[in-house]
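Shipment paperwork, digital attachment
Item: protein structure file
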Amino acid sequence: MSCGASERTPMTTGKRRLLAVCVTLLAIAWMGVIFAFSSQPDTESSEVSGRVSYQLVEGWNTAFQLGHTEAELEAAALRMEFPVRKCAHMTEFAILALLVLASIVAWRGRPVMKHYGMALLLAFLYACTDEFHQLFVSGRAGRFTDVLIDTTGAFLGLFLVYLIVRWVRGRTPTTE
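Attachment content:
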């Protein structure tokens, strides 16, 4: 053993299985969170993203001492509401894809390209069911463009992790 290096003890089968079950349950719980957000009627969903948009604009105004009026802040927040909402969707599905990837890796071992593809496919399929679910929620609509936005978020999250794994390991993950 070299100076300063630490030995890593392999995880026992029981601990690995427990980790795999816990991460899988986290992924399923996150699906429940997405389902709950998608169950909000359009008015409630707009109110939440409107508040977030206003807080962002107000924070920017305060941080940079811009001195905008209340009417200007409200107008800017209204313009930001759509991008804020779509970024929230992308973030939700990036988290889902990462939890699914973690679950797959916990069950199967070291991440390979196939695992990233499986995680992306599962996130896409869940995005499809999420948009279908929204067809039955007051004021909401199921749109394939939203499926694409959600899947883009999943892809970006997975791509970021892929780059981090590649950088940490100093090479590309194996392909199987």
